[in-house]
Structures are given as structure tokens and as C-alpha cells.
Amino acid sequence: MDPRLARVVGRLQNLPSIALPTDYPRPSGSNKLVEAAHLAELSDQTSLALLKLALYDENDESGDDDGDAKTRSPSAFHLLLAAFSVLLHRYTGDTDLVIGSSSPTARDPLVLRLSVDPTDPFWSVVRRVQQIEQEAEADALPFEVITRELNKNKDETTTVPLFRVRFFDETDELTENFIRSTSLTSDLTVFVTRPLASTRASLAPRISLRVLYNSLLFAPARIASIIDQLSVLLRKVAASPLSPVGSVPLLTPSQRATLPDPVGDLNWCDWKGAITDVFSRNALQSPERPCVVQSIPAASLSDPQEKVTFSYGAIRHASNILAHHLIKGGVQREEVVMVYAHRSVDLVVAVMAVLKAGATFSVIDPAYPASRQILYLQVAQPRGLVILKGAGAISPAVREFLATDLQVRVEVPAVEVLPSGEIFGGCEAGSSEDVLKSHAHLGAMDPNVALGPDSIGTLSFTTGSTGIPKGVKGRHFSLTHFFPWMGERFGLNEDSKFTMLSGIAHDPIQRDMFTPLFFGAQLHVPTADDIGIPGRLAEWMADSAVTVTHLTPAMGQLLSAQATRQIPSLLNAFFVGDVLTKRDCLRLQALAANVCIVNMYGTTETQRAVSYFAIPPVSEDPTFLAMQKDIMPAGAGMVDVQLLVVNRNDRTVPCAVGEVGEIYVRSGGLAEGYLDAAATAEKFVANWFAESAPARKDTLRHPPSNGLPGPEARHWKGIRDRMYRSGDLGRYLPDGIVECTGRADDQVKIRGFRIELGEIDTHLSQHPLVRENVTLVRRDKDEEKILVSYFVPLDGPALNDYASEVTDGEDEKGVVQGIKKYRRLIKDIREHLKKKLPSYSVPSLFVPLRRMPLNPNGKVDKPALPFPDTAQAVSAPSGRKAHTTEDTIRRIWASMLPNAPQPIPADESFFDLGGHSILATRLIFELRKAFVVDAPLGLVFDRPTIAGLADAVDTLRNADLGFSYKQPEAPASTNLLAVPGAPQPSNPPALLEYGDDLEKLVPHLQDTYPELPADFGAKALTVFLTGATGFLGAFVLKDLLSRDPRVKKVICLVRAPDAGKGLERLKAGSTDRGVWDDGWVKSGRLEVVTGDLGVEFFGLGKDGWVRVADEADVVLHNGALVHWVYPYDKLRSANVLATLTAIDLASTGKQKLVVFVSSTSAIDSEHYVQLSDSLTGGRSEYRGVPESDDLEGARASLKTGYGQTKWVSEKLLFEAGRRGLRGHIVRPGYVVGDSRTAVTNTDDFLWRLVKGCIQLGLVPNINNTVNMVPVDHVALCTAQAAVAPLPLPAAALSVLHITARPLPTYNDLLAPLAQYGFATSQCEYVVWRRRLEQHVMETQDNALFPLLHFVLDDLPTSTKSPELDDANAAALLGGRESTVSEELVGRYLAWLVRAGFLPEPSEAAPEKALPVLGAGVIKAAGRSGI
Q1: Taking every annotated instance into account, which residue ranges of this chain make up the domain Carrier (predicted)?
Q2: Which helix (H) or strand (E) holds 1062?
Q3: What are the residues whose beta carbons fall under 8 Å from the beta carbon of 1, sequence distance 6 or more?
């Protein structure tokens, strides 16, 4: 190996993969790129900072005078690259960065691998950049050489880009090819430019930055933010070059205005009252209003369920009685009363009673193991105990602990509430009298116990690293403070119907109960069967007409599992407790079209969810989720709450947009703290940002009216500006909302429960047969999080009792093969942990190892630990679901197809019942809306029946929305040459795979084809032309007939009843395009024959076929059925079989030259984008995809049926060429208007795009190139190929690429709209796409409606087109080139306005006036030319 290559490869081993924060989800599958550009000039202050840094001498700091080459002054480029690297580190937390770059001294690009540590002084990063660049320059090699060596012996499907960010100096040589070759896999590219400046300008360098970025990933605000932060960073480090880069402030002035102000007022004194007082007030105002609706288990699952309603008056009556009993029993203010509970109305009464007594309630779930219950009791030290009758009896071990270790003053042994408000408490041992009987007369009297904001009302538990639960004391302030705002923001009121679904010992149960009680609304309580049986929960919610629910994502998944009932009543679903995914949201939207999903963030210590991110109902905005990433963000702080993201290296520095920091929650509603004062001091901290802020007025102690403070002031500790240190990592998005990125410690959440991995490992290590252990969170094959414990058994005699006689092998990581050997030990370990941990903390998998894999630091090598995939396969969808899907699709069809039979058969084709391409597009939108699936717009052509669509929709839904729809493989038709109108079998053939079809068609070619006649180059030619009535065909006809005497005659195949009608059609089409000449007919140089591309002999009949074959010298096959939605088999006859017919015609009689007009659609695949990039990025002789390419790279990857037909046709011609056929394949890109007259084709994607943008009022920012060439240039090349083909030894049938030079961009086409006065504004592509989809779904009146499949599904891929090498075409035309200039775009727009295709510009004073066109034909005309 070349020593230089060896050094480069050595430096690039084990490359990291940078993950920049994106604004939109990264597209799955193939690389997609919609390029956008952002231009910025650095400010004078930033330029001066660069100058100051360039003059900085670290020797001044150290006193060292040694000025060798290593300390040469850095250039502006080095300083900017160092600052950019620091930003990347701050955005990602990565310390190992790879950046593609360039060099002023090396012709080849550089791959720079830089390390950045938060403690590094900025100046050391600058010096490191210089050193790394110097090393890379010394070993510079062609990029393809480096990638080839790095990817050697690797599977192509597993190779990843070397880098995703690039940083160039715009003046460096040979950058352009490298830029093109890596653009598809680069997220962000920065170009540094230094404009010319006069001597009168500032001495500071004038620097401009041009940022190219993938607008599918980033919003413009994100890019602007990066540039602003780069400037801030440079100004900060210029003042202190030795500052550690991890803590330099990056906050910009505009961000400071958007992000939370850490010293702002949060209405600390805005006390909303105690929940007990609000509840009692509601009960007194409306005592008969339903409060709790309890579902009662039916005798069997098939029997109807009974519901029992408890009024507000009844709940108040019962809770007052119990509260008086607790007070009488000696429970003191803020003492803990433990409730042994189950999900029921009894729990609501018990909790309200404890709070009315001024005490603190805590809940024990009987499902916890006895050892865990004892731990909670030990921590809580309750003085009261309330046991709900339905919760069952307390276990003997717990009862013994209560008797011996606790001082419980009052116990209520069996609480049961009746709908009348009557309450029973059970009898004490040895007594027959109910314990509550003596207080039954106090039901109408609320206890006179005053409560204030700082009264402690709740004790909740969170796990601790030592294995001992931490008790969290909750204040009354938070129990009510947020409800008025939530009511206003989310429409919650007394008519709302809530659910009780949270775990009863999980603090969100408080939210389930207190929210409806605050609003005077209903709380519906399900049975255990409603929650536990798949599908039942949705039925229960629908039957109960629930409007609001609080869920964890796990409960949401349970709700949607096998659900068959829609829940139209559900208006709000609040999620908290774990990561909420897009998949979770889509599942719920499929059940409840009217639900607003709200992702909330909060912890036990914040008492309530404190931030929110709202997702509008799919019925209002079906496109919103498409723009969201897979994980929903935490959102913005609720009223009077701030989520502060703080620098991890210096907590006095607030994070700027995009950088990862630790989340602190600032709020007046935080919990009081832990029972452990030391733990409280660590996590509940005073706001250091406000240390010097002026004192705020305490309006609770000193009311504004100068009156006396209320009783609540006695239970108020004054204004305390505190923050809770969450331990969660996150970042601000450009709009100020927060997204979480992980945990700062090992604490994790699974199914809404917070888990300490350390606690699990502590208990696991205490098992006598466990030597070493570590517990991790892993994702199974369904991407669900599960706990996996790895352990090394302690060898010895005791272990033998737990080992089975199973032979175990071992791989290099020390995995014990065959967990069966230690099955009994694993069972024993599981039982051991069940006694120590709640069920949700017991790992799902236990993996025994011979030894723990260690990394070089001596720590457990966690990535090396194996993961045995034991996830169960997803069960097949039930018949009932499929039936439901078919019924829904049938209703949609009936609404769209007015003449369809009733009922519509499941096996009838949509198109046979009157459907067409526009209705097909509308149908897909209806399916997307009805089922909330991302159905591809070509689906209805793949599956045109109700049964087929239902199967495809169910496949999409059951794939957890993680996989795109794939057309099932099917055998190709055996009726290879079937033509329209011929009798078809009763069972239609399966859809054809175009690659397979080619192999079946090749045998129809002749074994050999003769040479052209010897006089071909000298004689006057007769040309047989198809497609002459189309747009391009009209110009080809004109060009051919202008070549007198070389072209003697042109015979045009036209579809018409007779030759006279055919001539009229041909003349009309050419006249509309301004290229008709009556002299052609009079001179006899033009003849029309009638026929059809898709039938035998082109429909000429045997005699006509023979006559044309004898007369013609050239077959110029330009005709085709152009359709961007039809599948391959629907276009096959007109496009593929017609090509075979053209080949047959060329070899009937004397041999003829064949010219075939194809399309770049034949190479519209990622393979050719990559091939183009590799050729243009290196030192290849080609400027893009060679004209000699064999097209094998697109054998199975073309998406459009039209492109597939062109591919098969070209491959047939290639094979015929190998057998001797002479001619050319003309392969143009987009064919646009005449460069002289501006006559253009209105039925074209590009002009529909222009018109659709004008109708929408928005144009997308797309900097991708588009290969559009004027029609007269394409016609010139086509006609030249027919009359003066390239001489041999060129391939017998070679390709001619027609490409614009230079290539225009989509922005070149769309940006002039606003300049010429069309009321349009530019926006990012993702926003434009969403607005377009909304517009079409609302109005179904947009020029792009028939092509939405292309715009919404394929445009990001299709607009990244391969570069084309056009050596053959250049040789044919003598080097003549063409493109679409800015001036020509204006001429096209002027023509389209005059033709009535576009409206007149509406702006009164446009920047430019449309060009004035000369005399000529102005008439909108389409492209069809079959």
C-alpha cells in the first residue's frame, strides 16, 4: 500500500458518525436532497475579531520566543474552521469530528479528523486545525482512492459516508467536482469567500459565508442561527483566546429575546386556592352533577357493562365523613396517611378526605411485592392508614411491619362508597360497628382546615440509586395552579369527560383525579378488563364518550392495540412519563380523528407536567406530523414555567439554540423537596441567575389592597426562586421549544416508569450466585425498550445445583451459548429481584456470561455485550379488522364514483368503475386521512381493487408505520405481446416487473441486422416519424423538412380515422406551435399515414407496412404515452411493444437507421446519482454518466412506469445494436419551449410547478439543478442523428445525452416569478410541500394536483439528478450547447401569460416587466403525440 494511503487509512479508522440536530425527520431509505442556500457576510465586529485572533501570539502568554513553523499565524479560514468545529461539538456533544475540506496547495480534497474537548482552549483547537490540515495536505489523495480502501471488503449496503459536514474555501482548486460527488450525503456545507475590497475599506478582512444545506433536514432559521452563533463565538474568543471552548457563551441577541429569561417573573404569588376548596365549591354549586362514573365488571365479557354514577354532592358527603374521622383519630397537619388502593371512586374519596384533613396522602399499590410495600411505609412513616375494600387484604408481612415498626394512630380497614354518598369504613377487630358511623352526621360539613400554597398534600416516590425509594413532598400550589390556563388553552370545562388510567401509585394519578374535580367535570373509571384485554379500552372510551385522557405512551399503545372502535368524542390526549414517538401519535390519530395530542414533560419532583407540545387533530391538519421528527419534543414551558437548558461545563452560561445542555425546571410549582434534606439541596437549587435580581413583592403576605393576608399566608414560605435539576439533557430548537436528547446519568424510563439501573444492579449483585453484573436498556427488533441484565455466575459447588446438562459453546465475547443451562438460576434471580423491586424494574432478559467484555480502560465494554432477540412476531391482523378496512374504503369509493354499482364488489378495478388519474390522487389522500397511513400515491395503480387496497392499508398499519409499502412480487404476464382491445383472460395477469419483462422480450429480436445501404450517407432520405403531433415531434418535423435536399420526405404516423383527419390533426398541432408550413404538403415532402403505436404493424395493415418499409430510410421513433402515474404494464403496449415494432420496421425490406427518443427517466435512480458523483468527483474523463453505460444500474430501482418503459426500450435497442442495428438513442432531460419564439408545452411538470406555485403564492427554495433544454435544441440533435449519424467505430446504436450547459437550478426557474410581479414568496421546501398538500386537500384546484405523487413523494429524490456526459452529442453537433437563461425564463413566462396558461402578474410595481414578444402563435398546447 502507498505509505500516504496507509497513513490516511490509519487516521480514518473507526470513524464517528456525526448527528447534527435537525428540524425535520431524516428521510428513510435512499438519500434525498433538496438543496437550499444561505448567504451571509460577517459583521464588522466579527471581522475585527478575526483580525485580532490572526494577530494573537500565544508566546506573549507563555514568554516563549520560539517562533518556528508550527506556530505560523492562522489564516481566516483556519480560524473559521476551528470555530465551526467548536459549534459542531457544542451541538452534538461529540468530541471526535470528521469534516470534508479543501486545500490551497493540494489538488485533492481533504478529510479532516479533529478532536475537540470542552476543556480545550480555543487557541489549541486552532493549532490542532492547522496541524491536522498540514498532515492531510502532505498525504492528499484522490477521494475515490480513500473511500475505496476504507470500504474494501465491506458490504455496500453497510457503508456510510465519511462525513456529513463540509467546509471549503471557495477559491481552492478542484473543489467543484468533490462538492458534487459528496453533496448527496452531506447535510451542511460552508464556503468561505473573501470579496474584493478597496484600500479605503477597513483593515479587517471582509468575509462572506455561503451555506448549502439539505432543506429536507434544516429550516432556514437553523442555518441563520448557526451563522449568528459562529459570529458570537468568534467575538468571545477574540477577547479571550484561551477560554475553554465548552463554556464560551453562544447566545445571540435574537435568541435571547426568544428563549426564556431566567430572571423573569413567574407569578410566584398566583395562588389558585386549594383543590379541596375548589372541589367543595363545585359540589355545593351543582351537587347533582355527575362526578365519578364507575364501570362495574360484567358477569362475562359478552354481557353489557354497568356504569354507576356518583355525584359531586355524594363525593363531598363521603369525603367529609372520612376527613372528620381522620382528624378525630389524631392525624395532624401534613402527617402522612397511606392509602392501600385500587382504581375506583373509593380512591377519589379517600384522597380528598386526607387533603381535607390537612394531611398528606400517599398511595400503595397492592400489586407491589410485600418487601417493596414495607420500603414505602418505612420511608413515609404514616400516621394514618386507609384501606379500600376493593384493594384486598394486607399481606401478613406488611401487617407485622405496621404493628411493630410504625406508629399508626388511625386505620380505616375497608372503605366503600355508595352512589348516595353513604360511606362505610369497615369494622375494627372485635367490633361489629363501622368505624365511620360516629361521623356519618358530618357529611355536609367541610373540615375547617386552612391550606396554603406551601402546605404539603402529597407524598410520591421515585427510585433512588441506593435501592431505597425517595419520598417527594408535593405542595398544594401545584395541585391547582395550572388548571385555569389548561382550560383556556385546551378547551377543558365542566362538560369534559376524563379518564382514570394512570397507575394508582404513580403520581400522574393525581392529575387524573384533580383535573376533573377542579373543572366540575366527569371522571370515568374503567374496569381491569377494560384496560387489560386488547381492544377493550377503545370500546370503553367510545361507549363512555370520553373527551380527555391522560396517558403514558405505553398506555397509548395498549389503547391502540387491536382496537376496532373509533373514538370521535376524544378531543385531548395528554401524554407524559416517557418518550412519545410519531408512531404512537399516528396510532392514536387513526382511532381518534378529532384528538389534539399533547406531549408533556415533567417529573415527580416538578409535581406536574410543566411543558407541552401540541399536535393538532388529524381532521384539522393531516400534514403536521409529517414535518415532525420521530420523537416528539418536550415543548415549551406551561404558564409560569421555564425549561432552562444550561451549559454542562459552566452552569452560569445559558445554552443557545441547538447546543446540548442539562434541563433545569424553573417554576413556582416545584415540589417542596425530598424527605431527605441532603438530596433536596442537591436537586432543588436556588436560581443563581437571579442572585442579584431585585426582590419581588410578596402579594400573599402583603396584598395589593393593603388588606390583611388571607389564612393561606400562614402556610406560605414566601417567594422562592428555585430550579429543579432534572438530569435530562436537551436543546432549544430555533422557536424556543425544548427537545430531550437523553439522560445525564444512567436513569431511564420504560413504559412511563422511571428506573435506576444502579438500583437494579445493587440488588442483583446481592444474589449469592452472581459474581458480576450490569443492566442496560436495549431495544428489541420492534424498537421497544426493554431491560437486559448481564451477569457472570459465581463458580462453585452451589452453582451446580442450578445448572442443567446442556453443552455450551462460547464465542469471542464470552457469551454462554444456550441460556437453557442456567434456566433455573435465571428463574431464581428473577424471584430474588421481584422481592426487592417493583415489577416494572425487573429485567425482561437475563444473559449469563463466562466473563464480562472489558474495554482498554478496564471498564465493561457495553457495546460488546450481546443482545439475544427474543421478541415475538406480530400476530396477523384479524378478519374483523380487514372487514372494517374494506368497508371504509368502499364508502370512500362510493363518495367518489357516482355511477359505481352498490355495493361495490371488492374485486372490481377502480379504473373500470370510472376512476382516472386525478380521482386516483384524490383517493390516496382520502385513504391517508381515513387510516392515517403514508400510502404512496401510486398505490391505487398497484392495487386497483378494494380488496387489494385494504390488504395494502392493513400492511402499512400493521408494520407499525416503520416500513414503506412494497408491491408484492408476482409472476409476470405470459401474454407478452398483448395489445389493447384484444380479448383478455377472466383473471387479469399479475403486474409485470420491468426487468423480468425485458428478458422475455429479447427473443423477439432478430439474430442479426444487416448493415445500412452503401448509399445511405449520400442519398436523399425518407424518414418515418412517430409522435409528430406531440410537442417535441412538431419541432423535429420542422427541423427535418428544413434539411432540403438531404431529407426528401417525411412519413408521419398519426392516430386518426383517415389520412385527411390525420393531416388536419398534424397541421393543427404544428400550427399551434408556430412551426407549420403548407408548402410541405404541396411539394409532396410530407405524407400522413394513420395507425396506432400499440397495435401490430403500427396499425398500417400489411400492405401499408410493406410500402413504408420499402420507401423509408430512417425510422425516427419519437412517439410514446407520457404519464407519470401509470404503472409499467399500462404503458407497455404504446411504449415498449411499439419500440419492438419500430425495430421490426427498420429491418423489413432494406435496412434502415433507427433513432429513438428516450428520456433521462431511464436513469432516474440513486445508482446513477452516485455513479455521476464518483466520476465528477475524481479525475475521470467523463463529465457525468457515460453515454456508453449499459443501464444495469437501473434494472430494479426505477419508480415510474414511464421511466421503466424507456429503460426496457433502450435495453432492447442496445441488444439490437450488438446484433448490428445502426442508429442512436436520444436521451434528453426536461424539454421546454423554443429558445427563439418562447412557444412552450403547457402540459408539462415544470410549467405545472410554476402555475401551482403562483396559485399557492409560495415557491420552494430548491437549489438543485434541473436539466431543462429548449425544444429547438433537442429537435436539432434528434434530426441530426437521423440524417448524419456518428460514424463507426462509435457503438452501432449509441446514446446521445442532451444536457443543459450550464445547468440551471429550480431557483433559477422559480425565483423570477416574484421579480416579474407574480404574488409569490419563497419558503423552505418542507413548508411549501405541507402548504401545497393542505391547499390541494382543501380546494382540489391546483395545477399540480394530477402530479402530486411526484411533488410530495419523489421530488426530493428526483431533483437530485445525475450529471450527464455528452461527448457523443457534442461530437454530433460540433460542440454546440444550449441552456435556459434567466432572460429565456422571462420570455417563457411572457408567452405562458399571453397563452392564458398563467394569470397576469398581480403586483403593481414589479422589479421587472415581462418581455414583449414578437408576432407569433400564442396558444396553450399539450404534449401528447401518440
Answers
A1: 880-957
A2: helix 1059-1072
A3: 9, 149
Comparing CA positions, the residue from 833, 848, 866 lying closest to residue 795 is 848
**AA identity, residue 189:** T
Separation between Cα atoms, residue 578 and residue 597, nearest integer Å: 14
Q: Which of 429, 367, 409, 421 is nearest to 392 (CA)?
A: 367
Report which secondary-structure segment, H or E, holds 98: strand 96-101
Closest C-alpha among 229, 509, 195 to residue 343 = 509
Q: Chain centroid to CA 157: how far? A: 22
* Share of the chain residues as helix, strand and coil, in percent rounded to the nearest 5: 40, 20, 45
Do residues 809 and 817 lie in contact, with contact meaning Cβ atoms separated by under 8 Å? yes
Residue type, 772: E
Contact in structure between 867 and 788 (CB atoms under 8 Å): yes
Q: Which residues contact 671 (CB under 8 A, 6 or more apart)?
A: 472, 473, 474, 475, 478, 604, 605, 606, 607, 684, 724
Q: What is residue 704's predicted lDDT score, i.e. its pLDDT? A: 85
**Cβ neighbours of residue 1172 closer than 8 Å, sequence gap 6 or more:** 180, 1184, 1185, 1362, 1363, 1364
Handedness of CA 1122, 1128, 1130, 1135 (dihedral sign): positive
Q: Choose the weakest-confidence range: 251-255, 647-651, 814-818.
A: 814-818
pLDDT tens, 1189-1198? 999 999 988 8
Q: What's the pTM value of the predicted model, to 2 decimals?
A: 0.78
Question: Is the C-alpha dihedral spanning 760, 762, 768, 772 positive or negative?
Answer: positive
Q: Answer whether the bond into residue 1127 is a cis peptide, omega within 30°.
A: no
Q: Any idea which residue has 423573569 for its cell?
A: 264
HSE, side-chain direction, 13 A CA sphere, residue 321:
25
What are the grid coordinates assigned to 568, written together? 370521535
| pLDDT classification of 970: cutoffs 50, 70, 90 | very low
* Whether pLDDT at 709 is above 80: yes
Q: What is the pLDDT of residue 851?
A: 72
Closest CA to 320 of 445, 436, 441, 423: 445
The rounded distance, in Å, linking the Cα atoms of 186 and 166 is 7
Query: Measured between alpha carbons, how far is 708 from 1277 in angstroms, rounded to an integer?
Result: 95
Count of Cβ atoms closer than 10 Å to residue 1027 Cβ:
27
According to DSSP, residue 581 is labeled B
797 pLDDT exceeds 90? no
Three-state DSSP class for 355? helix
Neighbours of 1245 (CB within 10 A): 18
Q: What is the DSSP letter of 434?
A: B
What does the block give as the cell for 946? 378494494
Q: Which residues pair with 1307 in a beta bridge?
A: none
H or E element at residue 213: strand 208-214
CB atoms within 10 A of CB 969: 9
**Cα dihedral 1078→1080→1084→1089 (10° resolution):** -90
- Alpha carbon 228 to its chain's center: 26
Q: Are strands 470-475 and 456-462 parallel, antiparallel or unpaired?
A: antiparallel
- Distance between CA atoms of 629 and 615, rounded to whole angstroms? 12
C-alpha cell at 1060: 385527411
Q: Which residue has the cell 411539394?
A: 1083
- Candidates 1424, 725, 621; CA nearest to 1028 is 1424
Instruction: Tally the residues of the chain.
Output: 1426
With contact defined as beta carbons under 8 Å apart, do 1349 and 1332 qualify? Answer: no
**Residue 1299 forms beta bridges with which residues?**
none
DSSP 157: G
Q: Which three three-digit cell numbers place residue 467?
A: 435501592
Q: Which of 499, 604, 483 is nearest to 548 (CA)?
A: 499
Amino acid 1175 reads L
Helix (H, G, I), strand (E, B) or coil at 1320: coil
Q: Is the peptide bond before 74 cis (omega within 30 degrees of 0)?
A: no
Tell me if 777 sits within 8 A of 787, measured CB to CB: yes
Task: Measure the CA–CA gap between 1400 and 1389, rounded to whole angstroms.
Answer: 10
